[in-house]
Design brief:
Structural class: alpha+beta
Shape: globular
Protein name: Thiol-disulfide oxidoreductase
Number of strands: 12
Number of helices: 13
Radius of gyration: 21 Å
Oligomer: single chain
Helix content: 25-40%
Length: 366
C-alpha cells in the first residue's frame, strides 16, 4: 500500500471526502484529507525519514512506512502528538506473538483492543473515566481509528475479502482506551508489570466487545468478583474451550469497594481464577454431539461431568484495568480470541528518533 498511498494533487473542485471514498481508503466514515503539511508534521513526530519502514502489516504484509502511517493518522483525525501511541500500538499488533494475520482473517468477532498507561494518556487528553469505551474523546477515537485504517489500507483486511469475521463488533471502527490511573485505588497496570509510573505503555489484546458486569448489592470483594466470575463463565465465548487471555475493566466504585478491604491486584486475579469456570458436562453439551467441543481443553483437565473447567488457565492471563466514572457499580469482562493470540505489552517511545526495534520483517522483539 505504500506504493499506492502517495501524495498527489487534485483539482480544487474535487469533493475530497468523496474522492477518498472512491479511492477505497475509508473505513466507512468520512476521512480527513491528508494534506502535505499535516503528513509532514506526523512524520516529524515519528523521527523524520518518511520512507523508514516501521513494520509489515498482515495479512497482505504491506510495508508501513512513516509516510503511510502519517497519512492514515491524518485521515483518522489524529493530532501529530498522537504519533508515538499509534506507532507503539501497531508495533504491538505486528509482534509475532499477537498473530495479527489470524486476528485479521478470523471468522470470530475479535478486534484489537488498545489500552494506554502512563503520563502520555493524560498529556494527550485520553479518557479512562466516564464512558471510556464510548464516544466523545478525540484521542481515544482517532488513535483507535488510525490503527484500524492501517489494518485496512496496509494490511488489506477488508470485510468480506481477507477479513472473514461473521459479525464483527463496533470495536472494529475504533477500540482504544486508557486506564483511570488518577482515581484508581490500585497501582496502574503497567506498574504491576514492572514499568515505572513515569513510563508510558500500550497493551494490545485481540478481544470481543465489553460484557457488562452489574452488581449494586455487594459491599465486599467476594460478592463483586463472584459477579465477574459469572460473566466470565459462559460457554458462548471462544475462551470457554480455547483458553487464552481476558481483560477485566473494573469500574471505579467496584475497585474502591474491593480496595477498602485491603485486597491487591494479585488477590483479585487469583480469586477470579479460583472461582470461575464451567462444568465439563455443560461444555460437552451433555455429550449430545460427541466430543468435538472438547478437543481444545488442556489434556491435564479431567473429562468428568462435574469437573470445573476454567475459561483461562492462569491468573496471569487475567489483565486487570481500573476504568470508568465515579458513579455506577458497573464493571466489564472482555473475553479474548483464545490461545491463538497472545497479548503484547510494550513501552511507548516518545523520542522522535528511530530507536525502536526493526520490525520490517513483521516480527518485533521486545
Amino acid at each position: 500500500m505504500s506504493a499506492v498511498m502517495q501524495t498527489t494533487t487534485v483539482d480544487t473542485d474535487v469533493d475530497l471526502v468523496e474522492y477518498y471514498y472512491d479511492a477505497g481508503f475509508s473505513d466507512g466514515l468520512p476521512v480527513v484529507p491528508p494534506t502535505q503539511e499535516k503528513i509532514d508534521a506526523v512524520v516529524q513526530a515519528l523521527g523524520g525519514d518518511p520512507e523508514f519502514v516501521e513494520c509489515k502489516v498482515a495479512p497482505r504484509w504491506g510495508e508501513l512506512t512513516r509516510e503511510v502511517l502519517a497519512i492514515n493518522m491524518v485521515m483518522a483525525g489524529c493530532k501529530a502528538a498522537y504519533a508515538p501511541v499509534v506507532r507503539a500500538a501497531i508495533l504491538a499488533l505486528t509482534d509475532s506473538a499477537f498473530n495479527l494475520n489470524g486476528v485479521q482473517a478470523t471468522t470470530h468477532v475479535a478486534s484489537p483492543l488498545i489500552v494506554v498507561n502512563g503520563p502520555i494518556a493524560q498529556e494527550l487528553g485520553m479518557n479512562g473515566g466516564a464512558n471510556a469505551f464510548g464516544s466523545g474523546n478525540r484521542a481515544n477515537a482517532t488513535i483507535g481509528r488510525a490503527v484500524r485504517l492501517i489494518m485496512l489500507n496496509v494490511g488489506g483486511a477488508w470485510p468480506g475479502d481477507l477479513d472473514k469475521s461473521t459479525l464483527g463488533h463496533p470495536g472494529k471502527y475504533t477500540y482504544c482506551v486508557c486506564e483511570n490511573e488518577a482515581q484508581s485505588p490500585f497501582a496502574p497496570y503497567h506498574v504491576e508489570h514492572g514499568y515505572k509510573p513515569e513510563e508510558s505503555t500500550v497493551f494490545a489484546i485481540a478481544a470481543e466487545a465489553p460484557h457488562s458486569v452489574t452488581n449494586h448489592v455487594s459491599n465486599d470483594p467476594e460478592g463483586i468478583l463472584d459477579t465477574v466470575c459469572s460473566v466470565m463463565s459462559t460457554i458462548g465465548s471462544n475462551t470457554a474451550v480455547l483458553g487464552g487471555h481476558m481483560a477485566v475493566a473494573l469500574g471505579l466504585e467496584h475497585a474502591k469497594t474491593i480496595a477498602q478491604h485491603g485486597w491487591t491486584r494479585a488477590d483479585i486475579r487469583n480469586y477470579i481464577f479460583m472461582n470461575h469456570g464451567n462444568r465439563f458436562i455443560d461444555l460437552a453439551y451433555g455429550h449430545r454431539y460427541g466430543k468435538v467441543y472438547n478437543r481444545n481443553i488442556p489434556k491435564w483437565y479431567k473429562r468428568e461431568d462435574n469437573t470445573r473447567i476454567p475459561i483461562i488457565h492462569s491468573p496471569d492471563n487475567i489483565h486487570l484495568f481500573v476504568m470508568g466514572g465515579a458513579a455506577g457499580r458497573f464493571s466489564a469482562v472482555i473475553p479474548g480470541w483464545g490461545h491463538m493470540s497472545t497479548p503484547v505489552h510494550r513501552p511507548i517511545d516518545t523520542n522522535a528518533t528511530p530507536v525502536g526495534p526493526d520490525c520490517s520483517s513483521g516480527t518485533c522483539a521486545l
